[in-house]
Request: fold
Amino acid sequence: MNTLKDKLALSRRAHIAEAALAVFAAKGYHRATIRDVAYAAGVADGTIYASFANKEALLLALLDPLDELATAEATPPDARVPADVAGELRTRLTERFAALTPQRLDALRVVLSEVLVTPDLRALFLERIVKPTYTLPVPGFAALHAGGQINAPDPAFTARALTASVLGFVMLRLLGDPQTEKSWGPVPDQLADLLLDGLMPRAPATLTATPTPTPTPGEGADP
Reply:
């Protein structure tokens, strides 16, 4: 259980991150300084460094709600292998998209603009935010495939395909695709339907013809 001190530290961290998002969005990551963030947050410079090691850590902290490592570390390993595969997939996709609030999408826009051009930040972003989404599910996919519950002979590819699907929709939203923005709410269920059922139509059920009995000698003949 978190102590009052822990809760206050988390609250202060979130407040600073919110101020940093506004500053980075307004001035750009490289032009913004820790002093700018401290001023926007109404705290001393030293308070920033008490919560974040440096500006890079502060930038990535904007995506804390998308960090799956903390959740995974608190989850028993056997709880990661669901009994209801379809239901679990829908739940996980719904949770992942729900975490992408307008504020988080703004944070992603700011972070990605820096991550894509800064190798060190890109490595941190990949390791902390993206990589867990396609490595943590692999043992579960392998177990489900071994048990005949899913068709996933390459669990690593399956996990990456899921991550790529989510990231693809995020990029469409960030790029301003009107259809994606308009249908953002139903996306998790629609994506789950596509992943579970595939693109190819199911073959219609064929009626089994009732075989005509072969008459025995003498049957049906005139007396």
